[in-house]
Amino acid sequence: MNEIRFRLEISAQEYLKYYQGDVDSVQVTIASGQTIQFPASALQKHVSQNGVSGSFRIIFDDNNKMISLERIAY
Questions:
Q1: Hey, which of 3, 6, 48, 65 has its CA 20 to 30 A from 73?
Q2: CA–CA separation, 6 vs 66, rounded Å?
Q3: Do strands 66-73 and 51-60 pair parallel, antiparallel, or not at all (unpaired)?
Q4: pLDDT value at position 74?
Q5: Could you list the pLDDT tens digit for every one of the 74 residues in the chain?
Q6: Which domain, by its residues, includes 35?
């Protein structure tokens, strides 16, 4: 299994694009310069009235399929 950690800041206004289905995936560039992409729906449980903010961890299986996304800090 692989794990990637990153910081994410999406305003409530910006998140509306994901919520309304205009955008279906999130792309993040991590500290190493690697870019990852995951379904925007994975963020739903982390949305507040201010949007999405915090440090997150994605766990992937050996085929790079996302197993989970969790907030590890605000």
A1: 65
A2: 15
A3: antiparallel
A4: 82
A5: 899 999 999 999 999 998 898 999 999 999 999 999 999 999 999 999 999 999 999 999 999 899 999 999 88
A6: 2-73
Q: Please give the model's pTM, rounded to 2 decimal places.
A: 0.86
Type and span of the H or E element at 67? strand 66-73
C-beta separation of 56 from 5 below 8 A: yes
Tokens 């955008």 sit on residue: 23
Question: Count of domains in the chain?
Answer: 1
Question: How many whole angstroms separate alpha carbon 22 and alpha carbon 27?
Answer: 14
Neighbours of 18 (CB within 10 A): 21
Q: How many helices and strands (H and E) does the chain possess?
A: 1, 5
CATH value at residue 53: 2.40.50
